[in-house]
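Your task
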Amino acid sequence: MKRNILLINPWIHDFAAYDFWIKPLGLLYIASFLRKNCYNVHFIDCLNPAHPEMRHEKHIKRPRRKSRGDGKYPKENIGKPDPLKDISKRYNRYGITPRIFREELLGIERPEMVFVTSMMTYWYPGVFEVIRIVRETFPGVPIVLGGNYVTLCPSHASENSGADFTLTGEGERNIPDLLKDIFGNYPDFIPDLDDLDSYPPPAFDLMPTSNHISILTSKGCPYRCTYCASHVLNNNFRTRDPIKVVDEIEYWNNLRGIKNFSFYDDALLVYPEARAVPMLKEIIKRRLACNFHCPNGLHLREITEKTGKLMFRAGFKTIRFGLETSNVKRQIETGGKVDNEDLKEAVAYLKEAGYISCDIGIYILCGLPGQSASEVRESINLVRLYGANPIIAEFSPIPGTPIWKEAVKSSEYDITGEPLFHNNSLLPCQGEQLTYEMYRDLKTLARGH
C-alpha cells in the first residue's frame, strides 16, 4: 500500500500581497520526487485564488484576476502580531479561509507525513497557523517545514514553528534521509542534484486550477550582489538544457492549453549564447503562441540587439530588470552587476526590438542602509530619461547576505531577533535621509504622478 503524504502551500499574512505569477515551484518538484518513489501525494494550496468554496465566504470580496495569470488574492483582515501592533496598517490573511482549509484536510485520507513550505521570512505567521491547524486535525502525524524562511532563519523556525522537523536548503538534499529515518526505507529514485534535467517535472497537475505555469531554467546565480540571498538558498549555479525547457513549455501548452508562463530564475539571461538564445530561437521555431513573464529582475548587461529582438519575437511580455541604483559608487559596492551605460544600451536595444517604455520595468531599490532619498530620486529620473519605466522595490534585509550586518546596525527594529521586522512594507532600514514620508513621495514620482 502506498503511503500518503500531504504537501501544503501556506497562507501569506502581511500588510499587502499580490500574485505576480507566484507558484510553489519547489514544493511541486518535491511532489514529483515523492510520486517517483511511489508515495501517494495530496496537495493543498492555501493561496488558491479561485477555490470554488470561496463563493460561500460572503465577507470576502472576490479578487480581481487578470487573464494572463496574475492578480489579487482573496484577503481577510486579521489581528496584527504583537511586534507589529503599533504599525497603522491593516494586516491580512491572503488566500482561502481557515474553514475551507479545515474542510480540505478532512477531505483526504489521513497522511503519514505532512510537508509545509515557506517563502518570505516575515510571512511565517501564516506558516505557523497552517501547522497549528494540521496538528489539531492530524495529531501525531510528523510535520516537516522547509523553504526560504527555514533556510534563512533556521533557529527561529525550529524553536517557534511547531514543526517536528525543519529542513534547510533544497529539499531534495535532505528528504531522502528523512524518509529513511521515519519510514525505514531509502528512496529508490534520487535525482542528480547537479543536473536539473534529472529532476521529474514539477507536479502542476496537482494545482486545483491554473491558467499559467512557472518554469525553471536554472538555480542560483553567478553574481554575488550584497543584498541578494540567491547564493544562500542555492549551493551553486546550475542550469538546464534550453531545449528541454522548451519541451516542458510545449508540453503544458499542448496538454492544458496554457499560454502564460513565468520565469523566476535569478539569472535567466546569464550566459545567453548557451542558454537564453537557443531557448528563444526554439520557442520561435516551434511557433509557440505563448506569453512569457519575468517578474524577477533580469540582467541588463545581457541585453543585446540579438537578445532583445529574440525576446520580443518569442512573446516575452512582462520584462523587469534590476538596476537597483544609478549611484556608481553603490553599484560597485553592491556587486557591480550593472552600470548606467548598461541601462542606456539595453533600453535602446529593447525599443529597437519593439518594446515601448511602459513595457520595460526597471527595479530601483529603496531603503538600503545609508541610502538617501536623493539617490533614489536620481535613479528614477535616469531610468525615465533613458525611456524606461521605474519601479520602486522596497529593500528587505535578508539574513546571511553580505549587507546584513550593515542592515542590523542601521535598522531601528530588532531584525536579528524578529523576522517580522524584515517586512519591506516597514522600510526597516529607513533613516533621516530617507524617511517613510520621503519614500511615499518617491513612489508617487516613480508612478509618474
User: Anything to note?
Assistant: DSSP finds 15 helices and 18 strands in the chain. The mean pLDDT is 96. The chain has two domains: 4-183, 214-447. The domain at 214-447 is CATH 3.20.20.70 (TIM Barrel).
